């Protein structure tokens, strides 16, 4: 079994979609192994988004991700769990996301696209280590 990391971003929490998002993953057969509603701070976000620090959009990204609580979670499933999650999320731009995906069904703006999912097993391990160090391998 493999683990991956997700964030139901502040817009998902504000709009009341956390249950729907988690439910979709559970209906797919993925298991929720950890989850917590958290107010994300600049330090944690700098570690999580390290590759984006200094880019033109970084400050607005941190402002969005810290404006209200987000739900951070770890899902478990088969070896390609991260890929399953990313397919279910849909394209980053909700206008391009297929119907039936989370972003395709509920997203309205590229900058507020409801959910983050790790993009590889390596990223999942790194991100789980940041948010749930007790689960890190």
Give the domain tally: 1
What is the structural class?
A: alpha+beta
Taken as a percent bin, the fraction of beta residues is 15-25%
Sequence stretches where pLDDT stays below 50 over 5 or more residues: none
Compressed to H and E, one letter per element, the order equals EHHEHHEHHEH
Quickly name the level 1 CATH class.
Answer: Alpha Beta
Overall 3D shape: globular
Tell me what the CATH architecture is: 2-Layer Sandwich
Helix content: 40-55%
Whole-number mean pLDDT: 96
Report what the structure shows.
The protein has seven helices and four strands. With 137 residues, the chain is of the alpha+beta class. The chain has a single domain, classed as 2-Layer Sandwich (Alpha-Beta Plaits). The two termini are 13 Å apart. The relative contact order is 0.25. The model has no long low-confidence stretch (mean pLDDT 96).
